[in-house]
Protein 1
Amino acid sequence: MPARKTRERILETSLALFNERGEPNVSTNHIAEELEISPGNLYYHFRSKEDIVEQLFAAHEMRLDEALTMPGERLPDLEDLWFQLHSVFECLWASRFLYRDLVDILSRHRRIRVRFGRLLRRARESVQRLLSGLALRGMVAASPREMEAATENVLLVTVFWLGYDAARRGQTEGASADLAAGVYQVMMLIAPLLAQPARNHLLALAAAYRR
Amino acid sequence: MPARKTRERILETSLALFNERGEPNVSTNHIAEELEISPGNLYYHFRSKEDIVEQLFAAHEMRLDEALTMPGERLPDLEDLWFQLHSVFECLWASRFLYRDLVDILSRHRRIRVRFGRLLRRARESVQRLLSGLALRGMVAASPREMEAATENVLLVTVFWLGYDAARRGQTEGASADLAAGVYQVMMLIAPLLAQPARNHLLALAAAYRR
């Protein structure tokens, strides 16, 4: 099997095992066993589990940065909000192991901690741009302090939705998640900040999304 | 040393070590070592680490239930909201190990998963009672769906504030946390749901709290 192919298979299998069992519960030996390769072969491609986690994080980061990209030429509107949230939640689900044990992973992996901090800052700027766009369209009826606090709450609810959903359902196997409910909760964070008729428009979009 | 005293010391030391290093990173051997007792002596008092975690959870649950108690004879008002949030965040900080690795702990400890589910339901009822009280006072200018979604977001932001604060600051040692910022974020979730003058009253309370 060509080396490039093995490297890719290691990443794919690691992602699947991390997502299924939680990153703290998966060792490089588990990964090699699942792939039916020797631990030595695995270490030929990756120095350590941290190395694998960092490669997976880099791929997640690229995908998420793409999802955070805003329309360049015009002001964002409520449909952009909906679409962006949907894409972001799909990204988080694909790399859910990162969010299941976020604080633990960040405490053990210094480089991922630094990168996650930067990713969070880019996400914050993206939310700010979106809310500013709605304000410039005259859709907002909230104070700057309310907008600022809402930006932070949007990030928090998005980052921890999967964990909250698992905890409230007492189902922690990572087998399924109510992504639509997460998108809905974030839309409902923003709705009360809007003036009519934008507020009712967003409430209608959110209700249709939840069905 | 009397047995009761040793039992209490084991619980106190376990709580301190869990909070400092994260529950997944502390074994019963670490706890016995820190207390300078034999593992056998520890197992005389507690069958397993799960047993210790469950006792600590029971104590946390009692404290939190007390913090969630509402004034019985009158409708809750904005000062009650402020006071209750403050008490709840103090509780969460005292048992922060539970929230740092919530999904992992719940996935490993079935009994705690069941008890946490019940605790979350009681907390939801408490938030609902509080928001209903504000509505009965004529302070609310939001739809039932907005109120319902806000209830869920209040729980999510409260449960995961400590994790979010650690992640955004890239500081994951559990040594300190911005509890005031957490209380502020929850107050700012509720402010946009209120009619004037209650909305400005809550914004002023929140701003004073943040200073």
Note: Chain B has two domains: 1-46, 50-210.
Protein 2
Amino acid sequence: MTDKEFFKVTSLGTLLELIRTFPCVNDEVLPLDQCAGRILSRDIASRIDLPEFKRATMDGYAVQARSTFGASESMPALLTIVGAVEMGEVPMVSVKTGEAVRIATGGMLPDGADSVVMVEHAQALDEHTLEIFKSAAPLQHVIEIGDDFRRGEQILLKGSRIRPQEMGVLAALGETHVPVYRQPVVAIISSGDEIVPIEQTPGLSQLRDVNAHTLTGLIGLSGGVPLYLGIVRDNIDDLHSLCKNAVAQADMVLISGGSSVGSRDFTMDVIKVLPDAEILVHGVSISPGKPTILARSKQKGIWGLPGQVASAMVVFQVMVRPMLEAIGGLSEDHLGAAHEVSAVLSRNLASVQGREDYVRVKLVHRANQVCAEPILGKSGLIHTMVKADGLIRIDMNSEGLDKGTPVRVILF
Amino acid sequence: MTDKEFFKVTSLGTLLELIRTFPCVNDEVLPLDQCAGRILSRDIASRIDLPEFKRATMDGYAVQARSTFGASESMPALLTIVGAVEMGEVPMVSVKTGEAVRIATGGMLPDGADSVVMVEHAQALDEHTLEIFKSAAPLQHVIEIGDDFRRGEQILLKGSRIRPQEMGVLAALGETHVPVYRQPVVAIISSGDEIVPIEQTPGLSQLRDVNAHTLTGLIGLSGGVPLYLGIVRDNIDDLHSLCKNAVAQADMVLISGGSSVGSRDFTMDVIKVLPDAEILVHGVSISPGKPTILARSKQKGIWGLPGQVASAMVVFQVMVRPMLEAIGGLSEDHLGAAHEVSAVLSRNLASVQGREDYVRVKLVHRANQVCAEPILGKSGLIHTMVKADGLIRIDMNSEGLDKGTPVRVILF
């Protein structure tokens, strides 16, 4: 441990540029129903016209629109019912002027018909005779061939996330198997002489390994596969061999070190001697999270995270998640997108110029507004994490925010 | 098919009361790392004081605060360094007045020490002599026993969702295995003579089974386990036996019927004769989604969903999801909670009084505001689903919304 340490910090903006220099993982082809939340690795074009036939969008009667022109409640048009369309079958009948065919929503329009009259605007007088009370326009309640998608049309873009609605569209196109990026594997290494596994009762002066489990949850939510490699004592050979191992097995490595300057130096020493190692960032101008390290080994990202749990969460949210999404193939304009809500700050908050501050807040609904209430208290406490609903960001150039300021709360 | 059909519709509010009458699933105990996103089935109290020892929150020197009183840059206090605290070890030394012990963040305070002086406010003149430039207050940079959690304190509540931060807290408490509600199994049955499996090339007049796959995605995102039972033709015996089967295997059943009145009647006929069947709702005063059916069989919910894909999605979001969450054990105040953003309506929207309208919108960022742009077009089209970012709700008592009205967009 040195008494004083100075290191050149990197701005968050620069760091977010750096994370885009890492290559993304390769892809795989999965059955459609396993693709929820995954990232498309190819553009998807339609191989068909959809629908491939004219469909009714209402229950009623397929007609030629001209047979109904001028019809009204007082002067209904009189048509002859010449049959019915069975669902899922090609109609056996066709429709001439003055004729009508019963049809249900989704049914295929018979030849000759160009419009559908809703059941509410018609009345069958007997099996063959139909009164229509309203003039129908051509193509009314009809979906035409290719109205949804045209053959060859680009439907979904590479790099987009597959939501339930995209699953529906892929189903409609007959894409039973879908090309998606592999989920990046993220190794977690906990280091520190004071850290014990959670199943162990910590001795006095020891602590359970909280970060590994918070990170496991965060990695999963961000589309990665966590790979917990365990706890390593502050022994340079052990940490080095575990890190080499991690780089070989995983697409990204998180080293959750102790929070002391000593432990950070130690992590730096280990990273420096990894294969093809390059230290990219040693210190970021945000708070909490300043002691963050980002390095590259064999084209893979190695993070040294702060040991304090709340700091590690903020660093993950603001920096690690966008990189995990980027190497997972998500398109640039969606990286790090978070759900935010508007609120009003409940008290004055001081901040230091020259760094971005992230403050944990609780949302409190009062009268007509949502207040963001900063969660204060000693740093290093775990319980502040579960009391918080989200984070607010205070700009690098701000000296603080006044009570009543409108803020955006990044939910977590 | 009947020419006209009248049915008594239920308000959304009444339906949302009804869904709370279904029992929730039982629970299971899982390894902590498998609990992300799951719902706690028991309150969790702390079995320990956390921390169990006084910890430093900064790198520096453990001292008696009184040894530093009056210290300044020009008149530093002079202390004797009597040792160092090793991480993860109980200190071998104690601290008397005028003495200091090196300590790192997270280290255990030695006996006698009541304060930590940051490394930035001290300078070691030699191995044994320390200058301190700033007066330290008692308990400065110290976390005391139980500051985080006190033994016996309620920490997490039954019915709350386990986020990464809750995983961290559970780790800190040594909860290696966690009681959570089982994930409800939701059976999906597609019915309709026109529906074919997605791997099949539909004949003219047929359509691929889109809803089953949209619903699979939605169920997964809502904490359920989808169980796709396949497509059944409009044959009353087949649908009845598949439904009985579904009620036996699943915690909830979704029948994604055709959209025609005929297919709805058919679904009703089948549901009525299920064991202990009770029709609770037949028609809801929302649009789209009016033809929704909710019934109960053997204490389980059976839904008849509209066949149109966009309508089925809205019904799922607004009604099925809250029920799925409720039977999955989520506490009442979180049911159906959705991420929303504020926006301004880009054009006038008409609405019909007496029903709630849900309109699909796209978010467009313009100048200084986010606009919600309604996605219009023929009903029954699939592509409107993937173009939309969310839904806006138009109140039952409203005749519509004017361009420029501030709206809340429910993201999906």
Note: The domain at 55-143 of chain B is CATH 2.170.190.11 (Molybdopterin biosynthesis moeA protein; domain 3).
Protein 3
Amino acid sequence: MDRTLAQEAIGRIGEAVEVAGWVHRVRNLGGVVFVILRDRSGMIQLVTDGEFPLPVESVIQARGTIAANDKAPGGAEVRLESYDVLAEAAPDLPVPVNQDPASLGLDAILDHRMISLRNPKIQSIFRIQATCVKAFGEFFRSQGFTEIKSSKIIGGGSEGGTNLFSMDYFGQTAYLAQSPQLYKQTMVASGLERVFEIGHAYRAEKHETPRHINEYVSLDIEMGFIESEKPLMEMERRFMAYLFETVAQENAQDLDVWGATVPSPESCENAPIISHDEAKAIFKAETGKRALDVNPEAERVLCDWAEREHGIPMVFVNAFPRRKRPFYTYPDGQKTMSFDLLFRGLEITTGGRRINEYSMFQDALAKFGMTEQELGAYVDIFKYGCPPHGGFAIGLERITQKILGLANIKEATLFPRDRKRVSP
Amino acid sequence: MDRTLAQEAIGRIGEAVEVAGWVHRVRNLGGVVFVILRDRSGMIQLVTDGEFPLPVESVIQARGTIAANDKAPGGAEVRLESYDVLAEAAPDLPVPVNQDPASLGLDAILDHRMISLRNPKIQSIFRIQATCVKAFGEFFRSQGFTEIKSSKIIGGGSEGGTNLFSMDYFGQTAYLAQSPQLYKQTMVASGLERVFEIGHAYRAEKHETPRHINEYVSLDIEMGFIESEKPLMEMERRFMAYLFETVAQENAQDLDVWGATVPSPESCENAPIISHDEAKAIFKAETGKRALDVNPEAERVLCDWAEREHGIPMVFVNAFPRRKRPFYTYPDGQKTMSFDLLFRGLEITTGGRRINEYSMFQDALAKFGMTEQELGAYVDIFKYGCPPHGGFAIGLERITQKILGLANIKEATLFPRDRKRVSP
């Protein structure tokens, strides 16, 4: 008999079916046993007046007839006739799967990750994350971007970055890339012009914050023939609208489980663009305090301000001072053609126009105390004809976190890596 | 004025336009200069009777009127009126961009990767590769699979593998994952049932072959509720058909440049399934030689045989002996429920059903001299209810290589990593 998924049951009232999945919950009400079975599509209730001795999380294949029942999940239940045990679970489950994960601490959730990922509420996080990845690819393909896959093992710290993880590479020292910056620029300059990459990025920083992890997925784009950061912000604004629309359509239930909503696609139009100086002034006006930079507190204050004044908790901050941005950022007097995007109190994107003229590139190296030698082949990009260009990167885990309102970015990471955690 | 792309020119005959791109080639025919300009969409010819002193690869923005010209690429040319130089290239281009890369050795192509990637024929490789990634995501999403992103930094060699790259992780030793095997299985067992991942995999093997690289992109799937490797082969057969259909539709020009074709989607139906024993027998019958295993020579012979006998150079080999497969492979007597897919003489996929019963898992560990301790949290997957399941992985660079008939897998890798090469 073909397998029926939980969500298909409501369409097959009266039919004899076979269902399969995990025993999510068992309730014995004096002679009648209700078994909630979990499969990839959702939950279905099985009812029997016989015995049901299996521990939760056991996997079974069950046969019976579907009957309507308003009180059962999905509005239908299976009157159980027989079942086979595909895998019996041990009874000593280290963390519960069928309870709200809020009752567990984050450490318990991560220490027992193989089991906590079975929790439907936790799975919702990763269904939303999958939609973010899909929407990113769809949107940028529709704009003429080509997907690339660049190397994550690099011979040197080509962005002039510190805090790189080092590794032994057949006897030489190599590093894990902190971003695909160099490679994105190569591909723009190659003539592909518009590229995107979905890949891991690594930061060997000893952070202990709710917003940092040491390995994350970076949603990167880079595009040619732009003369400032403005077209990048416009592109990202349109992507965010597409993302919110897609998540609202495809993950309504997952949002519901967390009591979360996404801004309307139309409201993305209203997200303000303010300069770094304006950002500090707004922070001052809102809090009475001076900020030397757009720090985490300022990010929250600015998003609250944007929501109140513009109807969306999202704000672009541009015109950062040069000393606050990497050497390759395109200068604009003492400022730069760069921006961050803040969403619900968190920086989710950094981007900007990059230097493309070789002579300006040489000046920037000198100013930042760097040499062409240490950058190796990176220099060739600029020496042999590179159009004006720029790009940005969105942190996948951060945007997932903020869509759902999760307290810690590690909740939005399947197998997070932090200072102490390198398994499972 | 809005920019017109090269491929749009044919639709705008008689109009004044602005085009932009790289100076790909300059021909001076006694008073008339023909400039071929390259942009992300293709090539367009500019014609002028003035001077054109710029080196190739310089980036310009040019204005003029479009005229029909059958002899020009795309059937139209721009009568040049004026242009701006966006970036002048140095005249000492280390490798030519506008010639067939066959005239260069592989080392020159890789040593000057920033420049060789500008070659349109080389770019075609990566446009095809981008389509492979896209088609993989589209196909498996359509089959109810959820995309995951698992960690590439792991605390131990959970597959019992050797040849792992090691790294320093905040004072402890960690490794780069050789595959997402453990994590795919976790997510199947979690209840997601069907997952796929597109991500890097690492092998610290000292190979020097045209088919190995040390960092590659693995297209991975894993699915629950299957009792043998047969549904996996069927799933892959359908994916291959979808892939060939998509590449033929979207990359006709890229295939053309390489004189390549893909098998018809329908012919994928005919790809035979033979056992490991049959594979050796066919090799013997074809060559008169005995093979102890399906080695690279046998892979070529078997694909030639499949093409001659079944009309497609693609063959599934299943029922591998147990000692040739990893410990987690589901046994079937002395054989296993596992398979490889060979395409055009190269193994592009390894897959199979995995052990899901805890007691069988414990037996397998004992047989392979392993312990639960060394596998850590991996064991929990099986202890707490894991359905029958299996999966496979396709090497992205290998499939790209074989679609185009490239001699070396490094040609199908943007920034390949081998024993000696860790940059650019």
Note: Chain B has twelve helices and 18 strands.
Protein 4
Amino acid sequence: MNASDNGRDNAGVQSEQRASAEGRRYNIVSVDDHVVEPPDVFQDRLPAHLRERGPRVVSTGEADVWEINGAKHAITGLSAMAGRSFEEYTPKALRFAEMRPGCHNARQRLVDMDTDGIDAELLFGTLAGLAGGTFIDLAAQDAELAMACVVAYNDWLAGEWCAEDPARLIPQCILPLWDLASAARELGRCIGIGHKAALLPGLPHVFDLPPFADPAWGPLLGACEESGVPVALHIGGSIGRKQAAETLGALGPDAGVPAETLVASAPLTNYGVLANVLFSGVPVRYPQMKIVSVESGIGWIGYFLERMDWTYERHRFWTHSLLDEPPSHYFRRQMYGTFLVDDTGIETIERIGIQNVMWESDYPHTDTTWPKSRELIKTHLGHLAPEVLHNVIAGNAVRVYGLEES
Amino acid sequence: MNASDNGRDNAGVQSEQRASAEGRRYNIVSVDDHVVEPPDVFQDRLPAHLRERGPRVVSTGEADVWEINGAKHAITGLSAMAGRSFEEYTPKALRFAEMRPGCHNARQRLVDMDTDGIDAELLFGTLAGLAGGTFIDLAAQDAELAMACVVAYNDWLAGEWCAEDPARLIPQCILPLWDLASAARELGRCIGIGHKAALLPGLPHVFDLPPFADPAWGPLLGACEESGVPVALHIGGSIGRKQAAETLGALGPDAGVPAETLVASAPLTNYGVLANVLFSGVPVRYPQMKIVSVESGIGWIGYFLERMDWTYERHRFWTHSLLDEPPSHYFRRQMYGTFLVDDTGIETIERIGIQNVMWESDYPHTDTTWPKSRELIKTHLGHLAPEVLHNVIAGNAVRVYGLEES
């Protein structure tokens, strides 16, 4: 695999032609999909003196594994299961050759998107972590290398992978959060090269970062608000050096609970992220900021807004709450949840907000709706009024991420 | 305060007279309320050689604090807020004299229940922990003392406090879970003295207990099934020696997240308990067992059943699932959720199961509906069909806990 495999000449041109013939209009936008970084991302971009320590792929015979500064980072097979039957799902780390090429090859991704009828995808990484946590961890050992990796990832994602068709492959940047002033600068640079959202961990303390209520976050959060670029809080985005045992709480891998418990629970873990962002007063201080809870499902949000409002009503005195209004006020004004198939969420959509939910396909993870997205949309959302349906599967995303239609 | 304050002569007799005049019929049953153990519970009951080390109340001047085997156990004020305005809520530990007497005095509790129109309450402790965790922790230092404390608590709750009116004050037993064979025997003894449910932690590993899939649980879980006594899994029931930092996961007290985050999130933490019990195969092996998720709210359960079924469908092959059917099958057959005010839960009640939800008042905690329970029931449940309403606020509880009507 190398950069020319991405073949930005063919598929990209075809897409643009198609788009210009029809006028660009997004019919189905997925706000949560993943790239599996191919082996050349970092070695092609790091300064010469950092290459040796920087991320490189080594083969263990059974799997292709990343090595960073001497430490091995295996990628669970569950991150690259698109196209497999459920019987073939495995957590075992894979070789790139065992993955569906659309996992790591942009041209092939566009082909897979065509198969599934997906017009655009908002992209997260794999090695990088769901909020860049791999490099936040790395910074504790080697901040120079970590910063170079963040820049390399952001450059590669926007400048190479998504350049394959920038209207359909939408990059979201990771940030050097161990240095919040630099993070604000990197955000500005990323917006300049086409990134449409910033990834943040919802529980900063997991990375020993200051809480959101700390003024240190001001420059970055202010820049997010001012630029209009949404903040995406993906489930698992707070998995870092303290790892799942703490992030998933008592359900961590040492807990002796069945693996299905962890898988079933993963989306719902973002309840704490929602509550933390809200009760830390982020939307109070940044009323224009857009905040997206990604892959968390939506069927519990109606309940949780009620619960947070109830808590605010009863506890705001002794807690010296940072909010001026009940939490649901801020959620409906500027927060969003995303889902794949969620009948309870759709049944209760008016409690969440018709403008506040966005559909996703989660390619190529185990949850992915690929290649049955249109069928599942028809089955589970087909009863919605046409304008509501359009908002949920495209219109809200176009508005939130500022995608351009013509 | 002393035992005679409980005055079992007056209020108890009045209640029984009222009940016998009308025939005993439960109109409002709350399945989650708390006693604040009064100071004499353990000192009156422990064998002489254990009294010195056993739980006793000492005054710090500002608060009455329990001392057990030399260690202090403060009780948060948030556990005894019934009757206060929200402005007066405080986490500060209190003196007994600052609490509403119904917190610790059974006769006064019955008066408060009359004020609020509550026919019966299912009771949990305070010092004891929500699944007896205080004594599971103690057993690691002094198993003899811990066992005596468990027995004393169970004897006191059924034999003294609830004896004030056994048809209205319903005891639930704690168990010496560090010795699962003894726990099965203690369950049998407790059923004999009137206990109607057994409290278990939903995440046994927090107490270094074997996972539910381990055969060591067989005698106890088998006894629960055989006797028909439900297992109550109260939120926070897995807080023990590993404490909130791990049990509430990344939201623990050291997390630097606002206190409201913890309060708002507490009910939802039981999602992991539900998933653990289900995916550990407990309802598969014990199809007659009744399992209650207490104080967890219900508005997220419809979503989570969908999510668990989705997970089971996709992941059951590589996980070698212990289930034969999707999780929702077992939930609807034998599992229950409880709530105070939960409009989303009621809107989605058919997804959860009309037979599977029970109302609670949570006296005297901060969430309590006291003394407005009837008003809140009318406002939030008044639109339900009469037989559904009756099931939700009484009938389901009568059936699940085996309360006797005449």
Note: The domain at 29-51+101-401 of chain B is CATH 3.20.20.140 (TIM Barrel).
